[in-house]
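All the exercises in this workshop are built on plain-text protein records. Sequence and backbone structure share a record, each on its own labelled line. The structure tokens are whole numbers drawn from a learned vocabulary of backbone shapes. The record below serves as our worked example for the rest of this section.
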Amino acid sequence: MIERDQIDALVQLLGDKGVVARQQDMQAYELGARYDRGRAAAVLRPATTAEVSAVVSYCVRNGIALVPQAGNTGLVSGSTPDGSGTEMVLSLDRLTRRFELDLDNRSVRVDAGFRLSDLNRKLEEHDLFFPIDLGADPRLGGMIATNTGGSRFLKYGDVRRNTLGLKVVLADEAGTVLDLDSELRKNNTGVDWKQIFIGTSGAFGIVTECVLNLERLPKQAATAFLVPASGAQVLPLLKAMEERLGAYLSAFEGMSKNAIAAAFAHVPSLRNPFQGGNIPDYVILAEISRTWAPREGEQPLDAVLETALAEIWELEEAPLADAFIGPPHETWALRHALSEGVKHLGKLIAFDLSFRRGDIMAFCDHMKTEMPEKFAGVTVCDFGHIGDGGVHFNLVVAKDSPLLTDPTFEQRLREWVFTVAVEQYRGSFSAEHAIGRRNQAIYDLYTPEKLKEMADGLKTITSPGKLGSVRFG
């Protein structure tokens, strides 16, 4: 149990605004984005790296477990406390002071508590942005801890690719601050230590500052909904688009009929572009973009996209059955409404999976065929980043379904999906949400013992204190 004098000591380090200890005030930090609900002993809200170091040092010396929390938008129970009431949440929400833009280097040094939207709002006036496009609005520290990718991974890559440097506080008795905040894009002077803290769920240290690569803000874009001839034709369609559009292609997002229907039901103001309102079985949102303003005599991007699609249509065994070119704000509005739409259909059981690009549709088609036989009453509402092999494999069960009265149902369903994804299709059980308590058993099952041993060794070296919700060993 956490003693009153320990809370008082932490207040001395952080001030009254830096510690939340009343139960009614902690609820927002205890409740996850989708289904997590824990109980915190207290919430710590440091405002500087020095304060993070001080409270981490105190907690390690006193055996207090810490759960780092950024925007709390993750889906694997990685940023919320367990139900014991003995863990403290260390929130980054006050780490928002530092913002140093380097236009010559096209980079920014920024505190890890900044939300993605706030960062890009500041960058927009300089025609720059941090090119990780997400439906949620996380804080940068959480994005780094989980190595998020997003809808434009195809063009810009993930957080790992766009991180130049970090400042990290280790969970040791000294609260050691590691200064890894290089602004260099090329620096081969030994181990690239920052990579140890990217995508490892905050278990090895708490990111407090970061140096990020920035990209030019697109000034032109064209989008279309593409209807592939079949699931098997999605990859040929992607390859045909890449061949004709090259670096212009910035997104290739897949959306199933069930997911689209859920979005339309949840957001009636969305425009249905499909003929007669009939939603195809599968739809691709394709985007092409340029970073410069339109030039005189230059072919508009809508025309570039139309030309490419016309060529693909003429191919032998054409992979394209139909296409609807439309305004980017309308097409992306549908894509960003999918998560909330699916969430409101019933009990949601979500998976964040990735595959080789050639296997992703084979997996989805296989599961849609097998699901009625294995688990009748479960609806597949998948969508995802087809261009990079990622899929949000969402399963929905009606709230009044008798399946939900079976205490073994969800566990059996999860085990089956992971077995097929990992063993049959050689996929990853976590594409971009990293590992939280919800994925712990799957990590334990599929990670080779030597790798667990190495990860546990790194944890012992970097942060021997009780930090994070993941056990690597």
